[in-house]
Amino acid sequence: MKANFLFPIFLLSILAVSGCKTYDYRVVEPANLAQRITKQPVTLHYDPLEYRMARSGGFLAMNIVNPTDDRIVLRGNRSYVIDPQGETHPIRDRVIGPHSFTRMSVPPVPLRYQTMGPYWGWGVGMGYPFSPFYGAFYNDFYYGPDYINYEVTTQYDWEWKTGPARLRLAYDRDGKSFDHNFVIIREPAK
Question: Least crowded by CB within 10 Å, which of 2, 110, 134, 169?
Fold first, then answer.
């Protein structure tokens, strides 16, 4: 009974020592849209689009909303992010249909996938009640599935620890181009 009570305390102390931090974001440019972004979604109107931003895990989640009757294209070949270290990162193309939205996270969430591979090992097991090995027994060799995790990084992936990132989002609408520029700071939550 005592062990059941101590386990959550042990787990919380591991998390506290491991340095799990929460970060907030603050839009500083353009000045008329400046505000803090926390877990609660914030809507910023940057004509002709709306940006709905919120903290999601360790990322800034953005919904780019197109309230117009026109199709708007986010041009990746003219859009970029400059991280706090000064390195430039490309942004993928996106098409935003009329009266719809697209999602984007800053920085992008890396692609991760999991597969199962063979696993060999030794161990102790328990038999089923109707098996000849009922009760505890030593199994000197077993074979079973093992999960293998992979993370694929691309030119679009980058890390954002703290500091300002500059976003330039270039769009096309009915053959006309326009840009939206942001400076967003990532800082420890207060």
Answer: 2
